Amino acid sequence: MTIRGTTIPPRALGFMGLVAAAIVVVATVLVTRPAGSSDDVASTIACNAVSADFGAPVGCSATGPDDALVDWGDGTQTPIADAGTHLFASLGPTDVSVVARNGDTLASTSVDIELDFALRCETGDIWRVYELTPALNTQVAPYDYVYVGADGSSMYPGDSDYPATVLAASKLEKVSPEEQPRIGLCTVDSVAADTLDGTVTWTVTSEWYDPVVTRTRSLTPGVPGLWEGVQPVELHVELDVLGYQASERRGVFFGGCG
C-alpha cells in the first residue's frame, strides 16, 4: 500500500490496524465508566465532635460517589447528599462511614455517644441544723439532741444536768451550729433514659439509719428519722441504660421523716 508516495509493507499495515483498534477500546472504557463511581471519586467523612451526649445532634460532612450512603452506625443510613446533623440512637463508640451500594466501606470515622445525666433537686425554706449525739437509750431513736447549759456549755447524754424528761428538754435551747435549705423533690433528667428505658437507683445514707434504696425517676430523699430542723444525708444516684452507667453523689439536708 502507498500513502503519500510511501509504500507500507502488508505486515506493518496489519500492526497499525491493531494499534488503532486498541485506541478505540481504551476510549470506549473511559467513556462508558459510570459517572461518580468509587473508582475515581475520593471518599471522606468528618464529624464536628469526637464525643457527644446522647440526644445532642452531631454534624458530619462527607464526600464520595453520588450513589454512596452514610451509615451512622446505629441502624440508620442516609444518601450521602443528605449528610448533616444526626441524633444517634445508640450509646458508646459508634462508627460513621461512607459506604458504596455494594456494601464496601469507603471512609470511616468514630463518635463516642455518652450517657447524658443531670440531677436536679428542689430546695425549700432555710431550717436550723441541730447538733445530734448518740443516745444512751436507743428505744426511741439512735440519737439525742445536744443542749445549751446555763453557763453556755454543751450538755450531752450522761451529764448530770442533761434533761431527763421531755418537759425538762422543752425548756432548754438546743445547740444549732448552722442553717441549711431543706431538700425537696429530686429528678434525674436523661434523654437516653427516656428513649432507651433506663433505670434510676437512689441510695440515701445518714449517720443514724441504714441506707434507703429506691428505684424511680423522681424522689424526695429521706431516712426514717424524725427530728426538728434538718439533718445532713448523702444522696447517691445511679443511672443505668443498656449497661452504660452514670452517677452522682450529693450532700443534702433532709427534714421530717422519710
Describe the fold and architecture.
13% of the residues lie in helices and 44% in strands. By secondary structure, the protein is mainly β. The strands form seven sheets. It has a five-stranded mixed beta sheet with strand order 4-10-9-6-7, with no helix packed on it. Strands 18-17-20-21 form a four-stranded antiparallel beta sheet. The chain has a three-stranded antiparallel beta sheet with strand order 3-5-8, with no helix packed on it. β6 and β7 (77-79) form a beta hairpin. The longest helix is centred in the first third of the chain and has 23 residues, at 10-32. The model is unreliable at 1-38 (pLDDT under 50).
Write down how many β-strands occur, each being a DSSP E stretch of 2 or more residues.
21
What is the C-alpha radius of gyration, as a whole number of Å? Answer: 38 Å
Shape verdict: rod-shaped
Class by SSE composition: mainly beta
Low-confidence stretches: 1-38
Question: How big a fraction of the residues is strand?
Answer: 35-45%
The helix tally amounts to 3
- Report the mean per-residue pLDDT as an integer: 86
Largest sheet: 5 strands, mixed
N→C terminal distance: 113 Å
**Strand order in the sheet with the most strands:** 4-10-9-6-7
